[in-house]
Each structure stands twice: as C-alpha cells, then as structure tokens.
Amino acid sequence: MRPIYSNRGNWEAMLEGVYLFDTSGEWIAWLDGIEVYSQYGEYVGHLSPDGRILRKKVPAPRPFRAPPSSPGRMRPPANVPLAPSFGELPWDLVDVFEEDPEIFYRLHTKR
Questions:
Q1: Is the pLDDT of residue 98 over 70?
Q2: Residue 84 belongs to what domain range?
C-alpha cells in the first residue's frame, strides 16, 4: 500500500495495486499506467512520481473508460508516514485533491 498525499501534505488516499481508496477504505479510482480514472470511468489526472494526483489546469477532453470490477473495501492503515516535502507545481498543473476532490465521487452521465 502506498499513501497518496495532497500538495499541502494531507493524506488523501491509498494506492493498492491499480486501485485507489479514500482514507475510509472506499474505492474511488483506478490506474491505467500513470493515468487516474474515477470508479465511474472519468479521467481524473495522473499519478506523479512523488505520490500526488495532478492534472492540467485545462485538461483535454477524454472519453470515459470502462472501469475494472470493484475491488470492494480495503482496511486502511491506522497511520501513514508524514508526507515528503513537495516542490512547487508548474503553472499549468493542479493538485486534484485541492482543486476538485469531488471528481472521485460524482457520477456523470455519459453522452
């Protein structure tokens, strides 16, 4: 299990295999390579090497993806290591957990 942090250093999620879970153990997203998609198939951003989920301020439209089968709940750890010190983000990137955390929970209608 790998903790995922926000730019401010808050623990926001846990990565286990290709699945992302929130801190209560609910499945919220999955990875395709380094690209992150919500459990509903919406593109969220990419997983940075330092453990943040980032995306362009103005992302290019991407089609919805069929998500994998649900992994169910996970049992989150009682605590995680402190977040590393993060550098400043380039002007064209945002931290998803700071800018749009609801993206993991909202269901969009596919068109």
A1: yes
A2: 2-104
* Token code pair at residue 43: 């593109």
Q: Are 51 and 4 in contact (CB under 8 A)?
A: yes
Residue 65 lies in a domain: yes
Global confidence as pTM = 0.88
Q: Please check the confidence at residue 61 and state whether its pLDDT lies above 90.
A: no
On whether residue 14 sits in a domain, the answer given is yes
Domain count, the chain: 1
SS (H, E, C) 90-105: CCCEEEHHHHCHHHHC
Query: What span, in angstroms and rounded, lies between the C-alpha atoms of 37 and 19?
Result: 10
Residue 26: how many other CB atoms lie within 10 Å: 16
> What six digits make up the tokens of 48?
């940075």
Q: Which amino acid is at 55?
A: R
Q: 62-66 long-range CB contacts below 8 Å, 24 or more apart? A: 64/40, 64/108, 64/110, 65/32, 65/37, 65/41, 66/41
